[in-house]
Amino acid sequence: MSVLELPTLNACLNTLCLLLLVRGFLQIRRGARQAHQKSMLSALVCSALFLCSYLAYHVQVGSVPYPHYDWTRPLYFAVLIPHVVLAALMAPFVALVVWRAYNQDFARHRRLARWVWPAWIFVSVSGVVVYLMLYRL
């Protein structure tokens, strides 16, 4: 695999993470705790693999500027900026949500997950949108 293929891998990992997050949400709504746990831990692994791949790519390639100077440019930054900010801010909260579930503190896990889950969904979706705009437009 070439380093130039890593952005596509990253988009695939983000998409898989998104699907696992939705699956985990549906499972906990149905009361399937073990299935929920497996889906959410799988989403966590996908996010960790994404982060490793993302860092490996940008260490080797550096920053990739948005190549278009048309109406899509402000849209790109409107997606990119909240994506980056939320991705950076939510990492410790994801760890805390997992920690609370691990310690069976489900009341506090649930309260925090109600905020973290939608942010994680947004980061996953917006990551794919950033990829599509940067590499496929």
Topology:
Blueprint: H1 6-29, H2 33-61, H3 72-102, H4 106-136
Low-confidence stretches are: none
| Category by helix and strand content | mainly alpha
User: Percent helix among the residues?
Assistant: over 70%
Rounded to the nearest angstrom, the radius of gyration is: 16 Å
Question: In one word, what is the shape?
Answer: elongated
Taken together, the total number of domains comes to 1
Distance between the termini: 23 Å
Give the H and E element order. Answer: HHHH
Number of helices: 4
CATH topology: Four Helix Bundle (Hemerythrin (Met), subunit A)
> Quick one: how many beta strands?
0
Mean pLDDT: 97
Oligomer designation: single chain
Top CATH class: Mainly Alpha
Tell me what the CATH architecture is: Up-down Bundle
Task: Give a quick rundown of the structure.
The chain is mainly alpha-helical and 137 residues long. It has a single domain, classed as Four Helix Bundle (Hemerythrin (Met), subunit A) (Up-down Bundle), CATH 1.20.120.80. It has helices at 6-29, 33-61, 72-102, 106-136.
Describe the structure.
- The protein is 84% helix and 0% strand.
- The mean pLDDT is 97.
- It is built from four helices and no strands.
- The chain is mainly α.
- Helix 3 (72-102) runs antiparallel to helix 4.
Key words describing this protein structure:
137 residues; mainly alpha; Four Helix Bundle (Hemerythrin (Met), subunit A); 4 helices; 0% strand; elongated
